[in-house]
From TrEMBL:
This protein's name: DNA-binding protein
Keywords, in A-Z order: DNA-binding
Domain HTH cro/C1-type: 37-84
InterPro entries in the cross-refs: Cro/C1-type_HTH (IPR001387), Lambda_DNA-bd_dom_sf (IPR010982), MLTR_LBD (IPR041413)
Listed PROSITE patterns: HTH_CROC1
PANTHER family documented for this protein: BLL4672 PROTEIN (PTHR35010:SF2), BLL4672 PROTEIN-RELATED (PTHR35010)
GO molecular function: DNA binding
Source organism: Actinoplanes awajinensis subsp. mycoplanecinus
Length: 289
């Protein structure tokens, strides 16, 4: 079975297992049930497909999947918009989703850097493909630590650096969607070997990643509340929002927003002053050279 069709079948099975006949608005077919959710035959009826056609889809034996079938399955499985797009990506022929030629080095989008500069009063992080750090401001390093320099992998820091679990109080609430975002990216770029290698590395190294990966959840630009504990400033609370640039949709600006006059907002200027001191020293040293 081709890898892309295996991924399609696994995603369909996982979404079918989570939806019961009652939730789907149908009467369960008679006979003993051996699945937690819908039977293949029940989903086929809901989607207007023959049972054989749907079985071929789930078993990876259907070479082509039309957009009409994708839409019908999305409605029947009650997929949200992110899941619908993921299903479209998985259903598309692999040849339509490959990288267009050799990959060039990722460079921060100038417009995103200007936006980052305008948001210097809050922590900001610019991420590219495979969660590579493209840029980050001084407040980000003051809040999360020095590990997230340009070129670093945010995913490796999040899952493999013990400091991440110490600093992020609600680590699991933040980490699980990060795995879903990696799955979404793999669906869009199944032939990106460096991306699949990263996922396999994380799955081998962290049982949480392996468990979340197997549940087939997909996420994209999820807004979350992030609770941190800072070694000096103490508890910090941020609302995490993502902005995708108009010129390169593979780059996203992650902004750590704060409530006005909150304890976190009041301590950020102090953290910014601490962050500025070593940065100014580095810039002075570079000028002298």
């Amino acid at each position: 079975m081709p890898a892309d069709r295996a991924a399609l079948g696994a995603f369909l099975r996982s979404r079918r297992d989570r939806l019961t006949p009652a939730q789907a608005g149908i009467t369960a077919f008679p006979g003993p049930r051996r699945v937690p959710g819908l039977r293949k035959e029940e989903l086929a009826v809901l989607a207007g497909l023959s049972p054989d056609h749907y079985s071929r889809l789930e078993q990876g034996r259907q070479p082509t999947v039309t957009d009409q079938v994708v839409q019908a399955l999305s409605r029947a499985l009650q997929l949200d918009e992110v899941e619908r797009q993921h299903l479209r990506d998985l259903a598309a022929p692999t040849s339509h989703r490959r990288w267009a030629g050799p990959e060039t080095a990722q460079r921060p989008d100038p417009g995103m850097l200007r936006l980052m500069g305008a948001l210097g009063h809050v922590p900001v992080l610019l991420l590219g493909r495979r969660s590579q750090v493209l840029a980050g401001n001084g407040l980000l390093r003051a809040v999360l630590g020095p590990a997230l320099e340009p070129g670093a992998s945010f995913a490796r820091w999040l899952f493999l650096d013990p400091d991440a679990r110490v600093r992020i109080v609600n680590w699991a609430d933040f980490a699980a969607p990060a795995v879903g975002a990696l799955r979404y990216e793999v669906g869009r770029h199944p032939d990106d070997r460096r991306l699949t290698d990263l996922v396999e590395e994380l799955r081998r190294s962290d049982p949480d990643v392996a468990r979340w990966w197997d549940d087939q959840r997909v996420t994209f630009r999820t807004s979350l509340t992030k609770h941190l504990t800072h070694p000096t400033a103490g508890p910090l609370t941020f609302g995490i929002e993502s902005v995708v640039g108009p010129h390169d949709t593979e780059q996203r600006l992650v902004v750590y927003t704060v409530e006005p006059d909150s304890p976190t907002a009041r301590v950020l200027p102090l953290l910014a002053s601490w962050a500025a001191e070593p940065q100014e020293s580095r810039q002075a040293g570079e000028t002298a050279i």
